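QA checklist item 7 of 12: single-chain prediction sanity check.
[x] sequence parsed
[x] length recorded as 136
[x] structure emitted
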Amino acid sequence: MLYTEHPLTPQTPHDGANDDSEPTTSTEREDAWARAWVIAERLARAGGARTRLAGTDSGYRIELHLTGPTSNELEVVKVIGLGDRWGHRYSSPARNDGVAKHCVWSEVHRKRAEPEESPLMSHRLPGDGIDEVDGA
């Protein structure tokens, strides 16, 4: 993964990207960039720390690194949920000189993944009872 760090803090104004990381003119890429920027800004405010915005093969990844709990955990969870994929990494104090480290992340993909039908679901027959609700 290639990181292009944007030191976003809660005080960072939204003035667009720097010249080195400006995406191409593709509408799909611009939409992903705009979504990633919004998530990065909101995550910086909610987490009270810098966020990192990285370019990936499929879009962008936003990370917030913390060394302790944030006062607004619910908002952090809501913000990372705005992405197409999200998660959390934890590194124990035993590995970091007595300091627990957390990283919450959210990814924005250039093209949103369409839900695929499972091969198992394609063999269902009408009336097999899977989608029926017993009204009794």
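[x] summary fact logged: The beta strands are 51-55, 59-66, 85-91, 101-109.
[ ] second reviewer sign-off
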